[in-house]
Amino acid sequence: MVSNDIVKQRLTEHFGEQVSNFEEPYGMLSFESPKDLNLKLLQFLYDDPELRFQFLTDLTAVHYPHQKGRELAVVYHLHNLIDNIRIRYKVFTDIEKPDVFTATKLYSSANWMERETYDFYGIIFVGHPNLKRILNVDEMNYFPMRKEYPLEDQTRIDKDDAMFGR
Amino acid sequence: MCFHWHIGTSAHWHINTMTEHHIKLPEGSIEKTTTTLNLGPTHPATHGVFQNILELDGERIVSAEQTVGYIHRAFEKIAERRPLYQITPLTDRLNYCSSPINNMGWHLVCEKLLHIKTPKRVDYMRVIIMELARISDHLICNSVVGVDSGAFTGFLYVMQYRELIYEIYEEICGSRLTTNMGRIGGFERNFNSTVFAKLEKFLKEYPAVLREFENLFTRNRIFMDRTIGTGGISAERALNYGFTGPNLRAAGVDYDVRVHTPYSSYEDFDFVIPVGKTGDTYDRFLVRNQEMWESLKIIEQAYRKVQEFKGADAEVYHADVPEYFLPEKSDVYTKMEALIWHFKIVMGETEIPPGEVYHSVEGGNGELGFYLISDGGRAPYRLHFRRPCFIYYQAYSELTQGSMLSDAVLTMSSLNLIAGEMDA
Question: Would the pLDDT of B215 be above 80?
Answer without folding.
Answer: yes
